[in-house]
Design goal:
This protein has 265 residues and is mainly beta. The protein is built from three helices and 16 strands. The chain has helices at residues 5-11, 17-30, 236-245, and strands at residues 35-43, 47-48, 51-52, 59-68, 71-83, 92-108, 111-122, 128-137, 144-150, 156-170, 173-186, 193-194, 197-201, 203-217, 222-233, 254-264. 36% of the residues are buried.
Length: 265
């Protein structure tokens, strides 16, 4: 199945968004005054919503977040040190994505909530935009339901359910475990067709992710985090879609990882 422009547009947008949203919420709710955070991540692969968006190259992903009283603005980007012509018009070292997010986080008792807007500036395809909302519960495993709606070049819904838990191993070291499942439904077959019926749009349980990381607090302001991920298709149709859109063209499950450093003030 050939990747259409709209499918590629969807697949190029915002892999680190959930992490950014969680960081933003913690920053804005715990501090009385303005906050700022800079994070630099180095990863063996760029995978977003199950799509493999890099091949045999290091990706560098900086992120800057500023917040005040629940409101936040985040700027995130992706630098592929050797991008592939299987996905892009040219190869080599290239900055190919910039995401801008405006959000508001709040809470009521055990309930946390987030609403926001994301603009995706993409290389080689049309830019796109999403609005989203999330509800989380401050209980064991911190279940979080997030609903995204693309309102521009690839209209559709992406819904995720996440769980996560952190175990303190010592005063400055924590083990973080997480899991995510998702459902993807696009509005039109021109964006993404059902692999079994090209006249129908795609809708199915889509991708899952298992994650593990170790957060090492170097100082009150600096945290170093090695990270490991396993991304996989949730069904046969999803497997066909993800394989067709992957950089290699024949994979729907990926193991990748890296390390991030976050400095806050």
């Amino acid at each position: 199945m050939k990747i259409t422009t709209n499918v590629l547009s969807m697949a190029l947008a915002g892999s680190m968004f959930i992490v950014t949203m969680g960081t933003t919420a913690a920053m804005c709710e715990e501090a009385d005054g303005p906050t700022a955070d800079f994070t630099l991540g180095l990863y063996s692969k760029y995978v977003w919503r199950g799509y493999e968006l890099s091949k045999d190259s290091l990706v560098i992903q900086p992120s800057v977040t500023v917040g005040y009283k629940g409101f936040a603005f985040n700027l995130w980007g992706n630098l592929d040190t050797d991008q592939t012509t299987e996905l892009y018009s040219e190869d080599g070292n290239n900055w190919n994505e910039t995401d801008m997010t405006v959000s508001y986080d709040g809470s009521y008792g055990l309930l946390g909530y987030t609403v926001g807007y994301i603009y995706y500036a993409l290389e080689g395809v049309d830019d796109t935009q999403e609005i989203y909302g999330a509800i989380s519960f401050d209980v064991m495993a911190s279940p979080t339901l997030t609903v995204y709606r693309d309102i521009a070049s690839a209209p559709g819904w992406y819904i995720t359910l996440d769980i996560s838990h952190s175990f303190e191993l010592m005063n400055n070291l924590a083990l973080n475990l997480g899991a995510k499942v998702s459902y993807l439904a696009v509005d039109d077959e021109s964006t993404l067709a059902d692999p079994n019926d090209p006249t129908s749009s795609y809708s199915d349980f889509h991708d899952g992710v298992l994650s593990m990381s170790l957060s090492y607090t170097v100082t009150n302001n600096l945290v170093i985090t090695p990270e490991l991920y396993y991304s996989f298709a949730l069904g046969g149709d999803a497997q066909d879609v993800l394989e067709a859109a992957s950089a290699d063209g024949d994979d729907s499950s990926f193991v990748y990882g890296g390390v991030s450093a976050s400095f806050s003030f």
